[in-house]
Write a structure and sequence with these properties.
single chain; alpha/beta; UDP-N-acetylmuramoyl-L-alanine:D-glutamate ligase; nine-stranded mixed β-sheet; four-stranded mixed β-sheet; Carboh/pur_kinase_PfkB_CS; Ribokinase-like; PfkB_dom; 2-dehydro-3-deoxygluconokinase activity; 2-dehydro-3-deoxygluconokinase
């Protein structure tokens, strides 16, 4: 990853607003109506927002770039970045700011409903803006939105290293594959994978990724680095699990913090599991990210009680 005087991580895409609805169970049985407690709340924060927040909370200089509408949802996103002190470059989006409804069950599981009308095939992040910000960045993390797909060649030409999160990719969808095969670090969920190792090795073989990580919730994560596949145990949550929303974004932020500060992939993945476990203790109606001191202390404890494979010991 290259040196930079200005930005550690440029986050592209993934800005938006979620409406959180707590439901008695998932899947939700049909009924004429439900009484919702603790209520229904709309707040800023989708995948790019959460990654940016996680990186910023860990002390990395972070800049977020995306399209936003001139609407109440866009105002919430702008206020989110302003209140947390995260620089934001917002490109006007005539169709409006991205929004979703998250149904959250008592066990913390989530079902997301995305408003597909808030965008069009012609949406673009201006190439000059992408190039200028990428050239001032050590690394770029790319959301799998359509404008970011068109930005991939510009990012590669700027010489910045890339990461992306494929979320619950099935290993086959060609839209996701373009991100998987362009990024240097690839995150994804193992939820839809029959054979995680085959998918991880396929990403590495067909693209340029040197590190591929599949998160598996309470089962931990699978790390493919330097051709070796390693299981990373799940970190113990510091308090009861209330919501899994944002756990994958927190994992990515923790992992990238590790790599950008010189830690090897295995240690970085432990940072990711610790950050992800913390995120599961944060209610969906709020936004919070693990602080650096807590991340380091909990990761140190996890590494002390876990056998680190010899091939992964030490720093890069």
């Amino acid at each position: 990853m290259t040196d930079s005087p200005d930005i550690d991580v440029l986050v592209l895409g993934g800005a938006g607003v979620d409406t959180i609805v707590h439901v008695p169970e998932l899947p939700l049985p049909f009924a004429d109506s439900y009484m919702i407690r603790p209520g229904i709340r709309t707040r800023a924060g989708q995948t790019g927002d959460f990654v940016a927040l996680g990186l910023h909370a860990l002390g990395l200089r972070t800049h977020h770039l995306d399209l936003l509408g001139d609407d109440p949802e866009g105002d919430l996103v702008r206020a989110f970045h302003r209140d947390h002190g995260i620089p934001l470059t917002a490109i006007p989006q005539p169709a409006g700011t991205k929004r979703a409804v998250n149904l959250v069950g008592p066990d913390g599981r989530r079902l997301s409903l995305y408003d597909a009308t808030r965008g069009s095939d012609t949406d673009r992040l201006p190439a000059d803006t992408v190039r200028t910000l990428a050239s001032a960045s050590r690394h770029a993390h790319v959301s799998i939105t359509q404008p970011c797909a068109h930005a991939l060649p510009v990012l590669r030409s700027a010489g910045v290293t890339l990461s992306t999160d494929l979320h619950d990719w099935d290993g086959e969808n060609l839209y996701h594959a373009q991100f998987a095969h362009t990024a240097d670090i690839v995150f994804l969920s193992a939820a839809a994978l029959d054979d995680p190792e085959r998918t991880l090795r396929g990403i590495a073989a067909e693209g340029r990724a040197r590190e591929v990580i599949a998160t598996a919730g309470a089962k931990g994560a699978h790390l493919l680095a330097d051709g070796r596949l390693t299981h990373i145990p799940a970190a113990a949550p510091p308090s009861p699990v209330v919501d899994s929303n944002g756990a994958g974004d927190a994992f990515a932020a923790g992992y990238l913090y590790g790599r950008l500060t010189g830690h090897p992939p295995y240690e970085s993945a432990v940072f990711g599991t610790v950050a992800g476990a913390h995120a599961c203790t944060v209610p969906a109606t709020t936004t919070d990210s693990i602080a650096l001191a807590a991340l380091l202390s909990r990761a140190e404890e996890a590494l002390r009680t876990t056998h680190v494979p010899p091939a992964h010991a030490g720093r890069d």
